[in-house]
Amino acid sequence: MTVTPETLPRHELVGLHARVVESTDPSRVGIEGEVVRETMRTLVLDSDSGVKQVPKRGTTFEFRLTDEAADVAKASGTASQPAGGESQTTGEGAAYVTVDGVALLSRPATRSETGVDSKWR
What's the pTM value of the predicted model, to 2 decimals? Predict the structure, then answer.
């Protein structure tokens, strides 16, 4: 199944580009990179400044979807450009989906098997 904005919380996140857009810890806002590992409570991002472990609770992430997912007609909650306006990939070939980290709080394998409700915005 293709990763779409609607199904993103039910899929494997490793390999996707993610950016912290809101956090209870202001020092985490702006951290971005490829998701290299996911645990029940954290995402590990490989950024230009090294590997960063970010808690899911209290954090809002913006994921960049490319390829087929970006070809899906844009729905509420997706955009063709990131919230901050800067990115390596913008335009028709990418869709940006904002997800509250609380929607991702579970073991990755369990979340993808049981198909939690999509809480993206």
Answer: 0.73
